[in-house]
């Protein structure tokens, strides 16, 4: 019996270590992709549609990282929409029954989940259109209604963007494995940013293309943190950013490569 226990306990420990390693290894595997289809991806010359057609078009072009802007209707329903500038705030009923730009089918969050399950090799980046930590809490409380019962295989393919440091714990509490930190709304030094991300296991950040610089990108790279810049639609800019050490790009019209 003692011999059995002596073998059994180390075996359990080994299994736990392997399981832990596999879980860690699978984190941020989506960063193997260098192009993120911005706002669903451009379609027929149109940007920011966050539409069903744009999503499907991006997938057919080979994109496996697709960003969707997540907003709320005037009556508090969660939908994919960048803003309401062209229509003012809409009720959910109006949103669902009005084609965007008179030709694109709008997506609500329930359909986001359906797309996630249908295209089981795609990762969806969630860009919550919020302007404060309090608004982030409100939005993700509603999102949690749709995501709380998802299988890990599916939920781990939803990648929320975080804009405030305090968002991190909120998103973890709601069960999201990976996050993409959009830097710029809070003050930091290159080193403090890299340390904040490294200490929390954040392995990807996004940077406005007008603010990206070599020292920042290289400081992050030393901590094995990759950078995506936004929004970039030409190869020349991509080449310059690559020379800085940038890993990938949010893009409307550049095909996956």
Automatic annotation (TrEMBL):
InterPro entries reported for this sequence: GP_PDE_dom, PLC-like_Pdiesterase_TIM-brl
Top-level lineage group: Bacteria
Residues covered by the GP-PDE domain: 33-257
Name of the protein: Glycerophosphodiester phosphodiesterase family protein
